[in-house]
Amino acid sequence: MTTAQPARDVAIVGFAHAAHTEASPGTTNGVEMLAPVFAECFAQTGLDRTDIDFWCSGSSDYLAGRAFSFISAIEAIGATPSIQESHIEGDAAWALFEAWLTILSGHADTALVYGFGKASASHDLDATMAAQLDPYTQSPLGPGRHHLAALQARAGCDAGLWSPDDLARIVSRARGIDPAEVAAAPQDFPPLTAFDCPPVTDGACAVILAAGPVAERIRTVPAWIAGLGQAIDSAELGARDLTASPSVREAARQASGGEGLGPLDIAELHTPYSHQEIIVRRELGLGDDVRITPSGGSLAADPMFSAGLERIGYAAKAIYDGGARRTLGHASSGPLLQHNLVALLEGRG
């Protein structure tokens, strides 16, 4: 399905996220983090909650440790008067996809998309994340999330696709530390050091979408969604080449309508491990002229189930703040870049 030229114009007009912390005192339903994030989005756009036609969230009951945790999160919205609301079990970037389709279909003119996760509440994050693996052959083994990534990183090193020095340069840029310090760090998950892995992060974020005329009233230069695409690879890790991600390439093809990505100023990539940036850049065909994840990305902070939406939010903010004309936002979900989403955004006029 080609989605690069939708019937209605839809733009991102607001974006905010909670402070990234290693641990937070709030509950796992995200209310304490979400309420100020919503308030910031409303302050940016001049809207209030009664102006939002559709709400859509992304989170994980497994991570929250309770069933229907997203229902409790609605306390941050206020369900009276009645609201139109939906939810996806996963990164909120896919909630953005649903909200975009809802506006395109004419069922809403505005939408607020949000995601949240409190990773610090899990007493065994590796066991929690292993629940997404194949339930017969992989999940019972309980592999650690960093150890799985190390298998992928080792495969790329052995194939000559990257080296520890390449990874050190990526880490240095994302974390703002000296490459020599990275190179000297012990390889806790060979060939990965702790610097190559995402930190445990609690967080939440939200973006506001609006249809054409509404978006133009809110922003002088909205971040128009030129295309969105998503695709998924096999859940069986042994059935795919871990050094590649065809679903990234297919998501980009859908987003561009098969016309190619064209010139980009910025690409915000959701790559929790250093070597995954190399994979995604290669699949997208990004050159050295594109600024890669200036926000720091998931190596700096990795708030689960909102990190992908943050990448799209930062890509949008660069446009409506005047720092870029055309950007790309990428989100990933599942083990080792299994499921990917690509958003192409542009300023006009």
TrEMBL record:
It comes from the Bacteria. One of its GO terms (molecular function) is acyltransferase activity, transferring groups other than amino-acyl groups. Signal peptide: none annotated. InterPro entries: Thiolase (IPR002155), Thiolase-like (IPR016039). PANTHER family: ACETYL-COA C-ACETYLTRANSFERASE (PTHR42870), NON-SPECIFIC LIPID-TRANSFER PROTEIN-LIKE 2 (PTHR42870:SF1). This is Lipid-transfer protein. It comes from Dietzia timorensis.
